[in-house]
């Protein structure tokens, strides 16, 4: 894959063109708000953030031909609405910050025409990861706004 396309995909994954950078979307969200929800919405920031990270790890592992944990029963959304403690919340925030670098490493080393067990090429799996990340990043921002904790 030409470097131009790798750069474009990476920019797509980090929100350069259309949404906040997922690596920083949890900055400033305090532990007390991670498990809060807004009326009528099905998930908390904690649940959405966990889902996004677990699904991203699954997609990246698929591309690297590594085992992927089964998510058919949970769709990677945790049952718990909030982190058990501050350490769990900080661990998740760290995993969020690491996602761009992990993705870039996979992007730089992958065979773009290689196939995943999902029936996709590696490139298609990354493009789905971009849309999935954008969707859930927007959900997190929306929840932050509804909870009045969003920082411009």
Explain the overall architecture:
This protein is mostly helical. It has one domain: Four Helix Bundle (Hemerythrin (Met), subunit A) (Up-down Bundle). It contains five helices and no strands. Helix 1 runs antiparallel to helix 4, helix 3 runs parallel beside helix 4 and helix 3 packs antiparallel against helix 5. The longest helix has 25 residues. The model has no long low-confidence stretch (mean pLDDT 87).
Quick structural overview:
The protein is mainly α. It is built from 5 helices and no strands. It has helices at 3-13, 31-34, 45-63, 86-109, 122-146.
- What's the CATH class, please? Mainly Alpha
Task: Choose one word for the global shape.
Answer: globular
Question: In sequence order, what are the helices and strands, one letter per element?
Answer: HHHHH
Q: What is the CATH third-level topology name?
A: Four Helix Bundle (Hemerythrin (Met), subunit A)
Rounded to an integer in angstroms, the radius of gyration calculated over CA atoms is 16 Å
CATH-defined architecture: Up-down Bundle
Straight-line distance between termini: 36 Å
């Amino acid at each position: 894959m030409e470097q131009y396309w790798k750069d474009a995909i990476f920019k797509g994954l980090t929100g350069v063109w259309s949404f906040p950078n997922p690596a920083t979307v949890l900055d400033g969200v305090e532990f007390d708000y991670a498990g809060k929800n807004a009326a009528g919405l099905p998930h908390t920031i904690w649940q959405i953030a966990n889902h996004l990270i677990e699904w991203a790890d699954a997609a990246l592992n698929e591309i690297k031909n590594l085992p992927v944990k089964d998510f058919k029963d949970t769709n990677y959304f945790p049952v718990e609405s909030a982190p058990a403690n501050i350490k769990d919340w900080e661990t998740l925030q760290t995993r969020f910050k690491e996602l761009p670098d992990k993705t870039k490493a996979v992007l730089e080393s992958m065979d773009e025409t290689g196939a995943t067990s999902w029936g996709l090429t590696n490139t298609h799996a990354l493009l789905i990861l971009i849309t999935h990340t954008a969707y859930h990043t927007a959900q997190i921002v929306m929840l932050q706004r509804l909870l009045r904790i969003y920082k411009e």
